[in-house]
């Protein structure tokens, strides 16, 4: 069963990203929003972990732009708008928000 994991907290403030990466299944995907997009900051340790991720990786475009990271998207990640975010939620069997 596939799961879309939603992260919205900075990877520098707690361990949600690390916990999510440990539980990520082979059919799962991750969507970064809010301060979680800071994980994509060039040269950061979270970005290095995400760049090697074999899973689908998405980031909310509005949050990338708000934080000046729209040009920092790694090759394995895709920026999505709100309609695409909703579509992703319907594509996966479950949606898990890391609150």
TrEMBL record:
Entry GO CC: sulfurtransferase complex
InterPro entries to which the protein is assigned, alphabetical: DsrEFH-like, Sulphur_relay_TusB/DsrH
Lineage: Bacteria, Pseudomonadati, Pseudomonadota, Gammaproteobacteria, Pseudomonadales
One Pfam family matching this protein: DsrH
Native source species: Pseudomonas knackmussii (strain DSM 6978 / CCUG 54928 / LMG 23759 / B13)
UniProt name for this protein: Uncharacterized protein
PANTHER family: PROTEIN TUSB (PTHR37526)
Gene Ontology biological-process entries: tRNA wobble position uridine thiolation
């Amino acid at each position: 069963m596939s799961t879309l994991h939603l992260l919205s907290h900075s990877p520098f403030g707690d361990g949600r990203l690390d916990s999510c990466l440990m539980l990520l299944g082979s059919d799962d995907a991750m969507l970064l929003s809010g301060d979680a997009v800071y994980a994509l900051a060039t040269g950061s340790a979270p970005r290095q972990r995400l760049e090697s991720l074999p899973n689908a990786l998405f980031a909310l475009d509005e949050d990338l732009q708000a934080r000046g990271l729209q040009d920092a998207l790694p090759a394995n990640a895709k920026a999505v708008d709100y309609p695409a975010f909703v579509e992703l939620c319907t594509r996966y069997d479950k949606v898990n928000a890391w609150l």
